[in-house]
Amino acid sequence: MRPEILHPVFMGLNTIKGVGERSLKLLSNLAGDKVIDLLWHLPANIIDRRSSPSLREAVSGRIYTLKVRVIDHLPPKTKKHPYRVVVEEVHPQAVVPEQLTLVFFKVYADSIHKNLPIGAERVISGKLDNFNGGWQMSHPDFIAKSEDFEKLKSVEPVYPLTAGITNKMICKWMPTALAKLPQLPEWIDSHLLKQKGWNSFNSSLLVAHHPQSLDDLSPASLPRVRLAYDELLANQLSLAFARDRSRKKNGRIIKGNGHLRQKVITTLPFQLTNAQKRVLEEIYADQETETKMLRLVQGDVGSGKTIVALLAMLNAVECSCQAAIMAPTEILARQHFETIAPICDTLGLKVGILTGRNKGKERKKLLSDLADGFINILIGTHALFQEDVTFNDLACVVIDEQHRFGVQQRLGLSKKGDRADVLVMTATPIPRSLVLTAYGDMDYSQIDEVPPERKPVDTRVISLEKISDVVHALQRKIISGSRAYWVCPLVEESEKSDLAAAKERFESLQKIFGEDVGLVHGKMKDAEKDDVMTRFKNGDIKLLVATTVIEVGVNVPEATVMVIEHAERFGLAQLHQLRGRIKRGIEASSCLLLYGYPLSETARERLNIMRETENGFLIAEKDLELRGGGEILGTRQSGFCSFRLADMSVHKDLLHVAHQDAKLIINTDPQLSTSRGEALRILLYLFERDNAIKTYTAG
Ligand code: ADP
Ligand code: MG
Fold first, then answer.
1. Does ligand 1 come within 6 angstroms of the Cβ of 287?
2. Which of 45, 145, 181, 308 has its CA 20 to 30 A from that of 672?
3. What is the spatial distance between Cα 317 and Cα 320, in angstroms, rounded to a whole number?
4. Mutate to test the pocket of ligand 1, among 270, 276, 556, 576 (most ligand atoms within 8 A of CB)
């Protein structure tokens, strides 16, 4: 249960005076729909209203707060003209006070008379302009009574906005939101607090919302660093709980005699790389111990993860247990089946495949074979984890291409085989620091080597203006027997236009390549998708126009050319994944990155990195440097490991501190029962990382 102290900030934003239905909807897209979401919404800029010179010293175009006396009203001659109000400065240094004109379009004379009566003294704040030799201010941001002078001379935070939500609105709501935050106890270790010079959470948040200079907006400013640490600590602590929980569940000792594995290794047409061997040893060691395995295997595209998974599963099968491997898509599940089933056939093992497409009798039979233990290895999509799927004795679960699944799924996963070992494989190279934030609950192995015979990909960066040259080159390639992908750009705003762009490209290429072109996109039914992929694999289709659905794992060794349209719109990690598709064969392949204008400096730099290296880890590090962590993990799609306050390109070092801190907490106060523990519990709920602790205390 959420600690009571947090209730006020977990209320809906409509509990704030002035936030109506419409604003609530806009706010929930901008920040979230709870009070706490608004509190996490930090200023991105400032308006400095502190300057109030005499007009003689003023500079056109700046923001000033000025004391003035109203001299005259000049109502407009027609509706098109503005209402003007002539005022005179009231300034101790103005020996001869100058005048300035306030300009208002489309206002009611009534309100002007009320706010700026002739003869009255007022304070105005806004942008001062020099117009035809005279000073003017159109639509001052503030008009107030002169006693508010000092109050108005402040620095105003400028928040990230969205259409329909003005900065004024947010500035009005924010104090109310901040007032709802109760004084929270300190959860940070007192030594660390002292060492870093941090203030309390409440004060840090308050200061973060009242920046006094541009420096205060920096993620490296003291209050923001403290808030980032809070978020990282919540993240690391929840992962540490998840880890501890899975540790405490007993696993079982899996130690086969090796007869199946040996047979597979001797019949493989290649030697395992040293990296594969090392990672396998790490996995076998986990399987052998009595605690449950929870291990992440990271390996670049083409590093040979499938065979590693198979050998781990065979270890379980040697012990007369079952194993399962789950892929994120139907196509990938089938691909695994095609690789794994023939090998297992020769071993006399039975492999089943279960996806959303298995229906009726056939499905029933499969499930009963599974429950009876006739099936040794089951391959499938998330359909594997449907209610009615029961194993006879599941001892090893492999999840392929994990970044498509989330931490929650991982936590709930082991239900099928309570003591089953879990192996997670991902091809997304993730910098070490980010591994901690996303997979801090797991052990970690890296296949840091690709099989030696792979030829490098010839990567070129080409302007979209040269597209017809590209098409001609493609024609020659295809005539000489190559197969090629044409990847269409991601259009951020709507999936629909994404698809429209791909269809358009498909049609224009069809005019040149005729029957040789196919189209595959995310909106197709699985069966249709598979059909197109199969025809591409068989060579009935030679040029495949695709949206990013081909991104993950599809294996067509004959495809040696890839064109990526508007490559600058893709994340580096995504480009790397895509390019991996054409590294499957031993033939040399080429990748053409087409870019459009305008191309920013960063975008150019990113494309150059793609040209210079094929090392996924290097690419991932660079990507992190160039645009921060969220993109790498594809968090925008999966919604996990997204930080509100921490920025991994700035706060990386803090993560390690938080990691150590979390470990210590789990060891010394596993029930969070000390007074610091109580505070940490609040922290977990504050950042909505409470799921781990809920399941922890329940189980
Ligand atoms: P990924 O890590 O991207 O999933 P796969 O497991 O699909 O890679 O392997 C890619 C290809 O490399 C497959 O055709 C596989 O048979 C082959 N392969 C795997 N390991 C080796 C190796 N040690 N030497 C040569 N080829 C290998
Ligand atoms: Mg794979």
1. no
2. 181
3. 5
4. 270
Closest C-alpha to 544, from 513, 499, 511, 587:
513
Q: In terms of Cα–Cα distance, which of 487, 553, 517 is closest to 330?
A: 553
Nearest-CA residue for ligand 1 atom 5 is 304
Ligand 2 centre to CA of 327 (Å) is: 9
Which pLDDT tens digit goes with each residue over 82-92? 999 999 999 99
Q: What are residue 354's phi and psi, to 5 degrees?
A: -130, 115
- Hey, what domains does the chain have and what are their CATH numbers? 4-46+158-217 (no CATH), 50-153 (2.40.50.140), 259-447 (3.40.50.300), 457-613 (3.40.50.300)
Residue ranges of alpha helices (H) inside 555-674 are 572-580, 601-612, 616-627, 635-638, 652-668
Q: Does residue 355 line the site of ligand 1, with CB under 6 A?
A: no
Task: Say if pTM beats, i.e. exceeds, 0.85.
Answer: no
Q: Cα-Cα-Cα-Cα dihedral of 490, 492, 497, 500, to 10°?
A: 0
For residues 473 and 487, give the distance between their C-alpha atoms in angstroms, rounded to a whole number.
16
Sign for the CA dihedral angle at 610, 614, 620, 624 comes to negative
Listed residues: CB within 5 A of ion ligand 2: 305, 553
Nearest protein CA to atom 14 of ligand 1, as residue = 584
361-378 pLDDT, tens digit per residue, is 999 999 999 999 999 999
